[in-house]
Amino acid sequence: MARAIAAEASVKARRAEALGARLPPLMVAAERVAATVAQGVHGRRRVGQGDSFWQFRPFVTGDPTSRIDWRQSAKSERAFIRETEWEAAQTVAVWRDGSASMRWRSRGATVDKAERAGLLLLALASLLLRGGERVVLMEAGARPIAGLPGLDRLAEAIGADRSGAGEALSGLPPTIPVPRHARVVLFGDFLSPLDEVQAGVGRLAAIPVTGHLLQVLDPAEAVLPYTGRIRFRGVERETNTLIPRVETIRDEYGRRLAAHQAGLAAICSAAGFSFGVHRTDHPPETALLALYTALTAR
Amino acid sequence: MIFVYPWVLLALAALPLLWWLLRVTPPAPRSEIFPAIRLLLGLKTTEETPARTPWWLLVLRVLAAGLVIVALARPVLDAGAALPGSGPMLLVLDDGWASAADWPRRMEAASTALDRAEGAGRKAALLATAPNESNAAPEATAPMPVPDLRARIAALRPKPWPVDRAASARALRDWKQPGTAVVYVADGLTDGAAFSTFGDALASAGAVTEICCDTPPARLLLPPRSEPDRLVARIAQVPQPVPTEAAVLAQSGDGRTLARATVTLPAGASTAEAPIALPTELRNRLGRLVLEGPPSAGSVVLLDERWRRRPVGLLAGDMASAESPLTGSLYYLRRALAPYTEVREGDLHSLLSRDLSVLILADMPLPAGEERDAIANWVQKGGLLIRFAGPRTAEQPLGETDPLMPVRLLAGNRQLGGAMSWSQPAGLAPFADSSPFAGLTVPDEVKVTRQVLAEPSATLTQQSWATLADGTPLVTQSAQGAGRIVLFHVTANADWSNLPLSGLFVDMLRRLVDLSAGVAGAEPHAILGPAETLDGYGMLSPPPPAAAGLAADAFAKTTVSPQHPPGLYGPENGRQALNLGAALPALSPAPVVSGARVEGLSATAPERALGPWLLAAAIVLLVVDLLVSLALRGLLRRSVAGAATALALLLPLAPAHALEQNQPPALATRLAYIVTGNDQVDNVSKAGLEGLSEYVNRRTAATLVEPDAVVPGETDLSFYPLLYWPITADAQPLAPAAAAALNDYMGRGGIILIDTRDSGSGEGFSPGADTALQRAAQGLVIPPLAPLTTEHVLARAFYLLQDFPGRFTGDTVWVQRDQDRANDSVSPVIIGGNDWAGAWAVDQSGRNPYAVIPGGARQRTIAYRFGVNLVMYALTGNYKGDQVHVPAILERLGQ
After folding, report:
1. Residue A259 confidence (pLDDT) above 90
2. DSSP secondary structure letters along A132-152
3. Do residue B530 and residue B445 come from a single domain?
4. Is A67 part of the contact surface with chain B (CB cutoff 8 Å)?
């Protein structure tokens, strides 16, 4: 069982890598890198561990002699020590809504929302890992991942949480400690009331982190294609409503959805997040490109 | 169409209510799961039109309800008019020979009439107008419930004798039931002078409905007339306004058709004739003439030996030398006659003491005396006397005239050619057209060197059947009484001519023998007992109980009756046939009974209940409604819908496909039965073969699996060792492809067990199966058959069997007579009537559903054992054939 899950995760990871392969490695534009000690590509403009030259400074007693840069020292009478810039990796926290409403697809759709969100998440992660960034899944006990080989672990973690039933089904990211100034990417349908979404996003913004919020919608949710007399039920059957003629409320529904999305966008911009919408009947490449642009934008 | 319960139709008034109810109840909503339901909550639809069931669905449902109501009212199609009166129904049925041809339709008409009586809740009685087999006069039964009467009618068979109008009229006059409805199923013939009396009696018994008149009455085949080289078949019928055609088949004793003659019956003719020309050797094999068409006693004429056997007696003047090869006077005669006729020899007295058609005297003068008188007497009665001249005849004393000579002879003889003569041996002139030898070619090499001469007379030319090239008579003849005398003016050996050496001699003798009358049978006053008699369908069967013997000279003028049914009478070697057509008065059409309502025989289609079909239609509509409703609610995926629709459409076809879904038959040994089309019979066959397979598996090393149903011509038969073929009474002739398949199957070693299921007490269960077998097996090549004896391998293949019962017992089982080495001496066909499948059959719970008759576990066991033997025989051929010879082998080994 475990092996099967691992194999499935590996397949997913490969598919996501293939999806991301058409884009260059993603280095997150980071004004402030997350407060971690992880080695990375983001120079911290101070002396520290890194590959890039930072400065020569005169040898002072107590420095290990092995750090003397003899080439530089030979130019003068003093001994110099070569110092490198501290280069840190940006941490990107990713989260995908795994609630029941995400595991639904309408009759005409080929994938459910959770699957599409997972694919996008993995593709993004692969881009990030290729760029040398660290990716952490927003999940209790999750460890940051650096380097492409860690992608499988990520895929496995997503698969595992799909199959786990005990997840909080709030539809909002859990309150997990995220490094400060990390970037956050949230995938979900965000059909919860705007208040709840605002609370969740606000909590993240207070850490502080910024990031991107991608609403993944099924085409049926986007356009309400039903006709006739239909009793709609929630995914948990918690509530239902009988619509005598669905076609008559289609426009009203569209307006409500647009208002909801406008609310989401407002919440995001207030918290410094960017916001996007993706429909599962659209190609995932579009959404990935949008994510790429959003994360590289300063 | 009528309704049995018309008041149920009142419920149709409730349909509008149903319509309204269906309209006000909206269809159940579809159910959809939708995550974004929060956005939908509280949305109010702007249009408040209530959801409606689509109108066509409403129509569908109301239609289904209407169909159910109409079906419950039990509509019946073709129910016919109601019966008049209120008392019992009297069914008067003509069951004489003339009704056999369309007997099933008469039964249907009677059944339809009974349906009407049953529907009206009336009792019914039966009067069959022909006397029954025990010669009891027609008598009406007491009124009884219809189901009881149905059983009686089912047991009724057409009789081979005419109906008795006078006695029926008496029976009708005794009928005293007020309000009787008389239904008369007529055969369309008056059958005697008493018809008007009968008609009056019918009309007086009650209101008459006559079922008749739309089919021409039956034809009657009259005994043929025998002419020298042909039989003339004669047909009698009721004069028809249009010319018609009929065909007469000349069949041999074993039922093979040797010739077919078409008889054209001109418009308005009551009789017609057609010649059947057959070579003598074939004609001697004729057993019967059959009018082509439905079988009946009237369409069969049995031919007895009068039409066939022509014994020839040989006598020579010098019996001592008559037999010496090449020179004896009888030597050539015997060789010429023996292949075609029965040649008898002996002294004159013993020859004439038996029936004799032809007497040949080779150079034997007949001096006045007892012998001559005996011969003259015999000739007077119809004998054909052929004499050959010779030295003894030529030396006849002058002045003494032999009256048994066709012409007066000159003394001495005439010699042609030779050392002392100028003349040459004379050839023969071509035969005159009036001569019986006409058409025979005269070979040039036939020469006559010596002959006796006739005394010239005015009639000599007319009396000559053959002359020499110079006009001298060679063969002369004269009629004497009923007989004839023929004289060859030469010897019967090669002394005087080389005629006996030529083929012409053989042909001439055959023509002459053909001229003779057949033997007339036994002494005129001997009483001949009935041996085999015809039943109503023209099949030979054991004589009925009332059959009595008949004097030999009374055959020509005896009308057939239960006492004297048509058939063969007399001892084995002197059978004489009594034919229905021999003494029957001319056929005359019966007028319609006065005051009767007339219905056509073919118009009385049987009642058909429509209810089940309407219910089935309603169910189909409701299934469609269910599918549509499910689809409207979105509960039906497209694939599911397709499958369900396909299933609904295929459901009625499923049994038809069952045959093609047979397991691959080559993978295991299995028995098979031929599908008859009658479900009940097929089920018995299937159950029987299942029971037998199971028994064989239990008792022997053979492993048989589930039996198959096969259709010859469609199914590949080559996988089955044994086919079981039950014959139903309505079996139709095999299609050519089916017959070819079965013939091929038999030719390649397959065995067909043909079961008419009518032996012994089974006759009542499947009447007419014998006829049906003849009809069905027409196209099959069935070898000559012989009764199955205990000496046959089949009786020893596994168990040692003494008899071969099935559900019934007692009838002979027939197998191939001759051993056919090609197929391992295995009989390709086994014919019997013991209903073996019925005895073998087991039901689901393993019991035998059909009782064996007369019964006993022993009979069932023996039946199974016969089945095991049969399977073993089919699987191993004559492997156990040696078993038959074990005693002989042991004896040879000196044990």
Report:
1. yes
2. T-EEEESSTT---EESTTHHH
3. no
4. no
This model of the complex carries an ipTM of 0.75
Q: What is the CATH number of the domain that holds B762?
A: 3.40.50.12140
Question: For residue A264, which residues of chain B lie inside 8 Å, CB to CB?
Answer: none
Which of B555, B588, B621 delimits the end of a domain? B588
Q: Note whether B45 contacts A244, CB cutoff 8 Å.
A: yes
Q: What is the number of residues in chain A? A: 298
B44 touches chain A (CB under 8 A): yes
Gyration radius of chain A over CA positions = 23
Number of domains observed in the structure of chain B: 5
Question: Are residues B530 and B639 located together in one domain of the fold?
Answer: no
Residue A230: name the closest of A250, A215, A213, A251 by CA. A250
Residues B774 and B792 in one domain: yes
Mean pLDDT over A121-134 rounds to 84
Contact B490, B472 (CB under 8 A): no
Question: Sheet containing B207-211: which strands, arranged edge to edge?
Answer: B124-128, B89-93, B181-185, B207-211, B597-599
By C-alpha distance, the chain B residue nearest A101 is B35
**Contact list, A104 vs chain B (CB under 8 Å):** 33, 35
**What is the span of the domain harbouring residue B116?**
89-216+589-606
Selection from B563, B542, B539, B589 nearest residue B158 by Cα: B539
Shared-domain flag, residues B434 and B509:
yes
Same domain membership, residue B464 and residue B329: yes
Amino acid in the structure at residue B606: P
CB distance A253–B30 less than 8 Å?
Answer: no
User: Which of A102, A230, A234 faces B30 most closely, judged by CB atoms?
Assistant: A230
Q: Out of 3.40.228, 1.25.40, 2.20.110, 3.40.50, which CATH number does the structure's domain A2-35+89-296 have?
A: 3.40.50
Separation of alpha carbons B490 and B390, rounded Å: 6
B524 belongs to a structural domain: yes
Contact state of A221 with B35 under an 8 Å Cβ cutoff: yes
Which among B456, B518, B458, B448 has a CA at the least distance from the CA of B482?
B518
Please report the pLDDT score of residue B80 as a whole number.
61
Report the percentage of chain A scoring pLDDT > 90. 8
pTM of the model: 0.44
Q: Is residue B39 part of a domain?
A: no
| Strand-pair partners of A57 | A81
- Please report how the helices B611-632 and B638-650 are oriented relative to each other, as an axis angle in degrees rounded to 10: 170
Q: Is B41 on the interface with A (CB under 8 A)?
A: yes
pLDDT over 60 at A71, yes or no: yes
Backbone angles phi, psi at B654, to 5 degrees: -55, -45
For residue A291, the distance in angstroms to the closest alpha carbon of chain B comes to 24
Which residues 6+ apart lie within 8 Å of B29 measured at CB? A228, A229, A230, A231, A242, B51, B633
- Residue B893: inside a domain, yes or no? no
Residue A80 CA to residue A83 CA, distance in Å, equals 9
Low-confidence ranges of chain B (pLDDT < 70): 1, 27, 45-52, 78-82, 227-229, 279-281, 284, 305-309, 396-400, 417-420, 422, 517-524, 572-574, 602-607, 633-641, 644, 648-665, 761-765, 820-823, 882-884, 895
Please state, in angstroms and rounded to a whole number, the distance separating the CA atoms of residues B130 and B180: 21
Q: Test B29 with A230 for CB contact under 8 angstroms.
A: yes
Question: Is B52 part of any domain?
Answer: yes
CA distances B201 to A156, B117, B193, B198, Å, are 105, 22, 14, 5
Residue of A232, A255, A280 to mutate when probing chain B, most B C-beta within 10 A: A232
Residue B32: list chain A partners with CB under 8 A. Answer: 226, 230-233
* A136-170 confidence digits (pLDDT tens): 888 777 788 888 888 888 888 877 655 444 445 56
Cβ contact (<8 Å) for B39 and A220? Answer: no
- Does any CB of chain A come closer than 8 Å to the CB of residue B639? no
Residue B333 and residue B278 share a domain: no
